[in-house]
Amino acid sequence: MNWNIEKLESNYDQYYKEKSISGLYIRQSDILPLIKNLSPKFEIEKIGESFEKREIYKIKIGTGKKKILIWSQMHGNESTGTKALFDFFHFLENPNGFEKERDLILENCEISIIPMLNPDGAEVYTRVNRQNIDLNRDAVNLKGVESKILRKELEDFNPKFCFNLHDQRTIFNVEGTENPATISFLAPSINEERTLTDGRKETMSVISKMNQFLQKLIPNQVGRYTDEFYPTATGDNFQKLGHNTILIEAGHFPEDYEREKTRKYNFYSLLIGCFDIANSKIFNNYEEYFSIPNNDDRFVDIIYENAKLEDDNCDIIKNIGIIFKYEIKNSELIKYSTIVKSSEISSKLAHKRVNMEGKILFLTKK
After folding, report:
1. Which of 119, 118, 74, 109 is nearest to 88 (CA)?
2. How far apart are CA 270 and CA 210, in angstroms?
3. For residue range 116-174, what is the model confidence (pLDDT) as tens digits?
């Protein structure tokens, strides 16, 4: 089915985008009112509490036989997928001209969504939970409270497909180009040999459809994340257990450090992915997956050319590369600059270049 992209684009800001949440710092308190205000079409259930006793919810919709499990913010500082999920809820509530597509999804699929798996990490903007556990590397030991909640939902719901939503750093470009990897996909491996099982092929087939759509909007800005096998990773283990798992990594769009444009492409990825699962009887389009270029890591955020650094002991003029990082201070998200090794700058791309013309560079540092 060919989607009316112009109609989707015009609908997005007016009908789909959840305008009450924006930026990078999305906490549980931001989304709880939205969850509680969802229409009766959505079934809302508390499925547990985080280590610090914050409530974790799942939201279910659809009556079909194909089961899809989606979760976001298992890394607390990766919120683009969470924003995209609430945009997706608006589409399911009011598709405004795409009722046929919406109805096909809901008639053929049952979708269970955990919009924020790691609310403690989200509160303090950290990757890990409050036990200092990376939930995305805890699929075997299950030491994290939240890891156990996700695994129970997986076992109880028994989905055919999963979507694991993440953010990736601004350093990534699409290999062989000077374009940022705005969205990257991954069909996780089940072993070190990266065996192409039937489940991985099905996962790759859905990703191929998502990529085909995105190429019409952000050509050459879609990458493929490394499929190196991680024995303790969530996606690798869920794929190994027979649940086809699609990783969506939301990345940088030019001048979009708040990830407000990227969230739209994340939303489109979810929409097209769920539609393909709903609409397809077989998933055999996997070979196109390998035509998606790999991620490369050549970007820095800014290169200041012909600059002097404020705390150097000499007046050497050079090019200085900067990567932004973030931390919470007084309940606010603060961006600060980190300096890239000067030996690496010559090979780097930059999202922005500034000619300092020999002036001293004063940085906001941690």
Report:
1. 109
2. 8
3. 999 999 999 999 999 999 999 999 999 999 999 999 999 999 999 999 999 999 999 99
Output the CA torsion 196→200→205→206 (10° steps).
Answer: -170
- Other C-beta atoms within 10 Å of 155: how many? 10
What fold does the segment set 5-296 form as a domain? Answer: Aminopeptidase (3.40.630)
The dihedral over CA atoms of 296, 302, 306, 307, expressed in degrees to the nearest 10, equals -130
pTM here is 0.97
In degrees, rounded to 5, the angle at the alpha carbon of residue 184 between the alpha carbons of residues 182 and 187 is 170
* Domain coordinates in residue numbering, the chain: 5-296, 299-361
Residue the block writes with tokens 């205000």: 37
Strand segments, DSSP code E, in the chain are 43-49, 55-61, 66-72, 109-114, 161-167, 173-174, 183-186, 222-224, 244-250, 295-296, 299-309, 318-329, 332-339, 349-355, 360-361
Pairing state between β 173-174 and 109-114 = unpaired
- For the chain, how many residues are written? 366
Q: How far is the C-alpha of 13 from the C-alpha of 315, rounded, in Å?
A: 49
* Whole-number Å distance between alpha carbons of 158 and 154: 5
Instruction: Work out whether strand 332-339 and strand 318-329 pair parallel, antiparallel, or are unpaired.
Output: antiparallel
**Phi and psi for 74 in degrees, rounded to 5?**
-70, -25
